[in-house]
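Hi R.,

Here's the chain you asked about this morning:
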Amino acid sequence: MNVTFHIEYHTRWGQELFLSGSSPALGGGDESRAVPMRCTSAGEWTLEQEIPASGFPLAYRYIVRENGALIDREWGGPHRLHPDAAAARCAVFDSWSARPADTAFYASAFVDGIFSRRSGTPTLVGTCRDMSGNPALVGTCRDTSGTPTPVGTCRDTSGSLAPGTLTLSVEAPTIQPQEVLAVVDSLSGWDPSRARRLDDAGFPVWTLSQPLDRWPLHTEYKFVVLRRSDGGLVEWEEGSNRRVGDLPSAGDTAVVVRGLRLRRALSGWKGAGVALPVFSLRTESSFGIGDFVDLRRLVDWAAAAGLRLIQILPVNDTTMTHTWSDSYPYNANSIFALHPAYLRLEEAGRLSDARSRRRFAALQKRLNALPDVDYEQAVQAKEAYVAELFREQGAETLAGESYRTFFEANRSWLVPYAAFCYLRDRYATPDYTRWPGYDRYDPALAETFFTPGHPAWEAVSRTCFVQYHLDRQLRATRDYAHRKGVVLKGDIPIGISRHSVDAWTHAPLFHLDSQAGAPPDAFAVQGQNWGFPTYNWPEMEKDGYAWWKARFRKMADYFDAYRIDHILGFFRIWQIPCSSVQGVMGHFNPALPLTPEEIRSFGFPFEPQRHARPLLSVPMLAPLFGEYASEAVRRYLQPVSDGSCTLRPEVGTQRKIEQALARLRNRDKREILRNGLFTLAANVLFLEDPAAGNRWHPRIDAQRTAAYQALPDEEKRAFDRLYEDFFYHRHNEFWKQEALKKLPPLIASTRMLVCGEDLGMIPACVPDVMDTLQILSLEIQRMPKTFGSTFADTRTYPRLSVCATSTHDMSPLRAWWEEDKALTQRFYNDVLGLPGEAPDTCTPEIAGHIIGLHLGSPSMWAVLPLQDWLAQDAALRRPDCRAERINEPANPRHYWRYRMHLTVEQLLDDTGFTRRLRQQIETFHR
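And the predicted structure, written out as tokens:
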């Protein structure tokens, strides 16, 4: 077929436009073989090409080269073309696809969930594929009932490109379900009642196909938004009239004009949601811990209350030791596997033995009555049930077509994960370096575990059996939420465990000799050490970040939005050497460490032996070590020439200190010595870069050290200047380019709505990058981003943001209110604008006032913890507000066990509260 492509694009000298497509005639998806276009007039580019019938459906995109180098490509997925076979020719009039101002509304959160079209009977036409011929990840895929289908099959409206017709295609993602898009033209006298409705089967793309003679040359037209119910006018699109250009008139030609975008004021749509970990859910059917089916009851309540989004914590498998320490949801053993604790047992299968059913029913009742999660008992009970169920139903399930399809689709991660679980339990450790003969992952060896008769067969098969049911249950919950107009928001941790499947199978992608964490803040004054290895970004870049893309795509199987935990890690990560324990001993990576000459250029007389070695004057010994000062000097310290002392080599690092003190039985003595020696180890002004010798990082928070306090005033001022420059200016452009290199391809790998947790020590370049990529920021009133502010002003929150009253790492509203009376008083008077003395407790009225500030903010989303929503009702909220906290970041051994104190069924039964909540949300137009 003869196809002529037309596009308007204004280049500068040296730039050219190329067309890259899935057909061999357009390079076969290889952008280096893209076909050059011809510039026929100012800004008008064309290409006439013969495409064989085998080349359709055709996926293609435009790219720009300057002096031979690729400098730009279109936003989003490729264009798709599938003309009717009866057409001899096809004329395509495209528009360059730049990132739209309303990018968020193209996300599956809106397309498949909140604004989803749940009716209509679009027909499957062909298979949508990307530039390489692989099933596409973009577009709205629907079956004949309008239900989203698996990636790869998609209703492509270009299949209706019949000869002698003109097909208009326009992107309009902000049209809500009760609205339709239509076109009005000059031939109809601009009468909206005569408007022609467009088809929304490919939403957010709307199409209209009509005979070419219905569109005379220079016909003017505009799009309008109508009410779906009665066709009443909602609004005209903005801007000047559109005009039909010089189109082919031959009856054997199919013409398509697409890439148009509805000119509508940026949607002011705002939504509200609720945040709650899955393990914290409590329903009458829970087994002592929340599960994926419990989420459906929360969806029911959210839909009734007018909440459109449910945000949860990570749900990947964290099983390492089979103890309560596995409750930490950010220490997954696999980025793909779901946690077996979240399996609804009865939905996986019913046990045939009546006595077993009674035994598990009694256990369920007992565990479900506990005020908090008993992680070990709940998980062990589910493991026992699954073992019995697998013996009864495993063979039948494993032989079924549904299971085989799941297994083959997930084989790449499922096989190593199942092997990891088997070996972890066989050797009683997740540390794969201690598995004789298995310390390096061997794919062929792992495959042998799946041979019937192999000692590992039953264990690995049962592991896959559980993952199969978890996958089915979470997918069903996602679909259930869609039908209710609610979407699920997941959480992608920034790190992976050093004892995980991923570290075992992809070791070169990680720096296993370092630890990720966070610099000090108000919630963790010594910083945070998460223990995760940091990423080897140059290695990841070699295959286009394939590991990350696979991770995001797996998330997209279950979620329509996601939170990137610690998005600052894509700019730079806080890296701590394995020889250190406290986060305060870390440095940013990648970074531009200082040479000694650069340090001295600020007027600071840098001497490594003086400023980068832990030193302590004798008068400081007593305050640090108290009654154990003499013992500390005798056993752990050694004098230096200037009369001060330093650490002995055998306790020269925090990790060595920890090991040396582990033998002390006196707990109080051990703690005092540990704290004192840790403080001494951290008493430096500079840390040497581990990769670049004789290059130095100013130690974070160095102004709090005794070493800084001992400096003369002039040296303090010089140090402050270089500290300010290093942490707040030196790296801005460098870190910006790092983020712009990594984030765009990862974001483009799925259609999920992207939110970034950008709290903490924020480089100046972060807001600009997030705004450019339209990543929603996180706004917390107690963690202002304006320097010198105690509280953020909710009225100034950015539009592209998620605001919240608190997070899982903070005290909920009521507990926070009681922590610091002076701070609460200031908030009461200055933020709430209320006179007099603040109440001792956060009353329902005060909670409602605070929540109102958030609902009234410009933020696109207000997603609040369930605890804070309930704080508005004296009868529903938990009596002990201190029991509502989920995590304490300063405690690396925290037990994650918070549970709702009432059931979701009780929430649903309290229709009065739910109605008041819905009215509150609607009052603020959310």
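Residues 401-427 form the longest helix (27 residues).

Let me know if you need anything else.
M.
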